[in-house]
Design brief:
There is one protein chain. The strands form 3 sheets. This protein has a 7-stranded mixed beta sheet with strand order 2-8-7-6-5-3-4, sandwiched between helices. It has a 4-stranded antiparallel beta sheet with strand order 9-10-13-12. The chain has 2 domains: 131 residues, Aspartate Aminotransferase, domain 1 (Alpha-Beta Complex); 228 residues, Type I PLP-dependent aspartate aminotransferase-like (Major domain) (Aspartate Aminotransferase, domain 2), CATH 3.40.640. It is of the alpha/beta class and 383 residues long. The longest helix is centred in the C-terminal third of the chain and has 19 residues. Helices cover 40% and strands 16% of the residues. The mean pLDDT is 96. The protein has 15 helices and 13 strands.
Length: 383
């Protein structure tokens, strides 16, 4: 049925060995989530009430103060930025992205500049970098604060321990002593489970998550944070635009009732999943793929043992042979039969490393690990 649906459009489905990424459509919803979404389809509810009750339910589930369901983590960042700048002043809300007369500068440390910072400037904010590429200190943050500063942005990634970056604890300490908001992009930091409340309970005013990483619809995410900020985020939303007739910047970032219910159901499942079994399955998949390629000359193969975040384990492939590129392998797999998508490693700005790739088990269906292993072996042996 799925093949027929795509073939009707002239599209050949691919094997996803990258993971839960936007360019391949997010993740696969479990049947329990699909069933809940179907049930939501059968009747109507007031959307403002649904958002309020769904947010309250998820916040309690996570152990956080408040929550708002958004159209992905990117939308959570944009709506939070708008909430920081315009607050609950309707005259300011309708002005955005014109920030005249508002505090509109958000500080971001130099070692955390990244591809998705654009989500902050959509609302009209200006990013101001502090520190340098070698080292960022509390003093750098302190010196960057002006009368136009409204917040400090922090990118959370617990798989990376950067001793030269300013920590979240230090960021919160400086920001709070200067009456600034702290916003955290924790899009994929959904495991261990206490990550879903940890950053907000540490003192961050808003934390953005992508719900696709635990089986919710691709287009859903959350703002988790203080009740004050979540209430102000709600004023920027597509629902507020319609029900209050206040034209905020969030109108294009619409989600439907089925998606909100899907996000609630996926959150319930995630908090009650046997994660030891989940991680063991991911590891087994990675070991299977590695068995096909571990003895090939010119590469180093490692089954990574990370269990933190949204994408556990993984098969790391490092090219040691000179005058060769894993980009060639990447392209050959994408152009082959079946089409298999892998992706060479990227830095924070999206630049590719042609000598390093990591195969993810996240998006693989039953039987696809063997196909990926065999095709990888074929192409790697050609280098």
């Amino acid at each position: 049925m799925v093949n027929k649906i795509y073939s009707e459009l002239g599209i050949k489905p691919i094997i996803n060995a990258i993971g839960s990424v936007t360019l391949l459509g997010g993740s696969t919803q479990p049947k329990q989530v699909i069933d809940a979404m179907q049930s939501a389809q059968d009747m109507y509810v007031p959307m403002d009430e649904l958002e309020q009750k769904a947010g309250d339910f998820i916040a309690k589930l996570f152990g956080a103060e408040a929550c708002y369901v958004t159209s992905g983590a990117g939308s959570a960042l944009t709506l939070t930025t708008a909430a920081f700048m315009a607050g609950d002043d309707d005259d300011l809300i309708v002005k955005l992205p014109d920030t005249t007369g508002m505090k509109d500068e958000i500080l971001i440390q130099s070692r955390q500049r990244y591809h998705y910072e654009r989500c902050l400037t959509y609302a009209g904010a200006k990013l101001v970098e502090f520190g340098n590429k070698d080292l960022v200190t509390s003093d750098d943050l302190e010196k960057s604060i002006t009368d136009k500063t409204v917040a400090v942005h922090y990118v959370a990634n617990e798989t990376i321990n950067d001793p030269n970056a300013l920590s979240l604890e230090e960021t919160i300490e400086v920001a709070k002593s200067n009456n600034l908001y702290v916003m955290v992009d924790a899009a994929g930091q959904i495991y261990p489970l206490d990550n879903l409340s940890k950053y907000s309970n540490m003192g961050a005013d808003s934390v953005s998550y992508a719900a696709k990483y635990f089986g919710a619809p691709h287009s859903t995410g959350f703002v988790v944070g203080t009740q004050e900020i979540v209430d102000k985020v709600a004023l920027q939303s597509f629902i507020s635009y319609e029900m209050r007739r206040v034209r905020g910047v969030g109108r294009p970032q619409k989600i439907d009732r089925q998606e909100i219910i899907g996000a609630v159901e996926a959150a319930k499942m995630w908090m009650n999943t046997n994660h030891e079994d989940r991680l063991a399955k991911a590891e087994k998949t990675c070991l299977k793929i590695a068995s096909y390629i571990k003895d090939i000359d010119g590469i180093e193969v490692e089954v990574q043992e990370n269990t933190i975040g949204h994408d556990p384990h993984g098969v790391k492939i490092k090219l040691t042979k000179e005058n060769a590129s894993l980009i060639d392998v990447q392209n050959a797999l994408r152009d082959g039969e079946p089409r298999i998508w892998i992706r060479c490693d990227q830095d924070m700005e999206g630049n590719f490393n042609k000598r390093l790739t990591r195969i993810s088990p996240f998006g693989l269906y039953e039987g696809e690990a063997e196909i990926v292993g065999e095709r990888l072996a074929e192409e790697l042996n050609k280098l």
